[in-house]
Amino acid sequence: MIRADDVRYHTPEDVAYDWAETAFFSVYLPEPNITAWIYLVARKGVGAMVCDIEAIDGIGRSSLNALYIDFQQHLPAPDRFETFSLPNGLTVSTMNEPRGYQIDYIGVDSTEFHWTVEGLMEPFDIHDPAMDPLASPDVSASGFGSAYANHFDMTARVTGTARIRGKSYDVDCVTTMDHSWGPRNERGLRPMGWINGNFGTDLAFQTIWTFSPEAKGWHQFKLAHGYVLVDGEVRGLVDGQLQAHRAGSYPSGYTGSLVDAQGRSYAVTGHPVAQHPWACYSNSLAMFSTIEWTMDGRIGHGLAQENWPLDSLTGKRLG
């Protein structure tokens, strides 16, 4: 299980250069169709932190199509992970650990975020069999290899404000945040899918998939971990299928089904309303999509992140 202290660093005494502590936060603003996110990668072994802050509002194939990008890879790693400020204008502090976060960011070109993140559930530990029926002591079964040696996902409500290039918006949405720690070398990262949908405080799903880009149809994805959140009850998944409909390497839609430990099934279909090539690591290309989902007759939104590692997939003309 995830404890309050897990919002802090987990740095080993003999920390290697590729040890990483990561966190991801996002919001979705339906009326302007804006997805904004903050991604953090702290590497205490080299004393540096990656901080990626972006916003998109449509289907794009170039970073130039984004609404806003402030992506810095060599900020000084802060002394503490549970409360810190960075030179780029980002401040993060935790509360009601491990379920609450306050995020404040003063950026450039009249852009700033002020978000309060409140978990709607206990963090979902993918390595705890009491929470996750698919938990395994073998990190190769994590869906992302040793990069998910320690990892949790958490459906959360985010409230506050966002001002992007001079336009202000109220924020009140349900989304998924995550946190990982462990070895994360930029060479040898695995293909994977991190995919979720949020329909309200009473209904959401979060999934992690192994991903085989060279396979076709239903054979591309295999469920590694996931849950459905229904009226506050976290239902761990035991099975699932997912098919991406593609225009080249980018998904143009998804069709799938999820099965929880009690045998209840959930059919999901979705299509992208925003999309972006995301180089979250220099050696990777993530197909980042905001998906409009349908599940049980309800419409919701979530993120689909497909990791395509460039060191292993280049030379195969997959694009």
How does this structure look, described?
With 319 residues, the protein is mainly beta. The chain has one domain. Helices cover 1% and strands 59% of the residues. The protein is built from one helix and 19 strands. Strands 1, 2, 3, 4, 5, 6, 7, 8, 9, 10 and 11 form an eleven-stranded antiparallel beta sheet that branches. Strand 14 and strand 15 form a beta hairpin. The radius of gyration is 18 Å and the shape is globular. The chain starts with 18 loop residues before the first strand and ends in a 6-residue tail after the last helix.
Please write out the topology.
Elements: E1 19-29, E2 34-43, E3 48-56, E4 68-76, E5 83-85, E6 90-95, E7 100-106, E8 112-119, E9 124-125, E10 150-164, E11 167-183, E12 192-200, E13 203-211, E14 221-230, E15 233-247, E16 250-260, E17 265-278, E18 284-295, E19 298-309, H1 310-313
